[in-house]
Design a protein that fits this description.
CATH architecture: Alpha-Beta Barrel
Largest sheet: 8 strands, parallel, barrel
Shape: globular
CATH class: Alpha Beta
Number of helices: 7
Oligomer: single chain
Number of strands: 10
Radius of gyration: 16 Å
Strand content: 15-25%
CATH superfamily: Aldolase class I
Length: 208
Amino acid sequence: MVRTRVKICGITRGEDALAAASAGADAIGLVFAPASPRRVTLDQAKAIAQTLPPFVSTVALFVNAEASAVQAVLDGLRPDLLQFHGDETPEYCASFGVPYIKAARVRPGLDLLKFAATFAEARGLLLDAYHPQRHGGTGERFDWTLIPAGLPKPVILAGGLTPDNVTAAVRQVRPWAVDVSSGVEVGPGIKDAAAIGRFIREVCNAAL
C-alpha cells in the first residue's frame, strides 16, 4: 500500500509549521483567502516557510482571488503548489504556469467524474465538505460514499478529519493524501502539536 500523504492546512505560526514537519507532514497549507480566520499575509507566509526543513512542500490556498494577488504570492513566496478553493475556471487555474490542485465541495448531485475531466490539468482533486457560505475550514465531514470509483486524479481527502476518524477515512477512501486544519487545532489557526502527531500516527496506522 502506498503511504498516504498528509497536509496540515491553515498554518499561521512558524512553530506550528515546524511541529507539522517534525511529526512527518508532507506539506503545509498557507491560506490567503481574506475571509478565513487562518489567513496569513505574504510576510507571515514567508517567515513560516523559512522555518521548514527540506522536502516539506508549501501550498498556497486561494478563494476566488484576483490574478494579481496570486501572482504577488508566487513572486514573493514561490510556493510549491497552488490550491484553488472557490469557483475558479480551469483556464484561470492553469494560467499561472504552476502546479495546482482544485477543491470540490462534495454534495449529492455533484458529478465528480465530470469535475475531474473539467480540471484535467490539476495535479489532484481536494474533496471537502459542502457549505453554502464557506469554502472550507468548516470542520464538517461529508458522505465518503459520494466519491465514485475510478476518479482519474489523485484524491486529497478533507473535511472534518480528526485523529479519531482519519484511520477509518483512509481505509475507506484510500486517498492519495489527507488534509486537516481545524481537526488539529486549539483555536482557528493555532495548531496543537500533540494532535498533529497523533493525526499522522493514525494515518500510518491505517496501513497496518
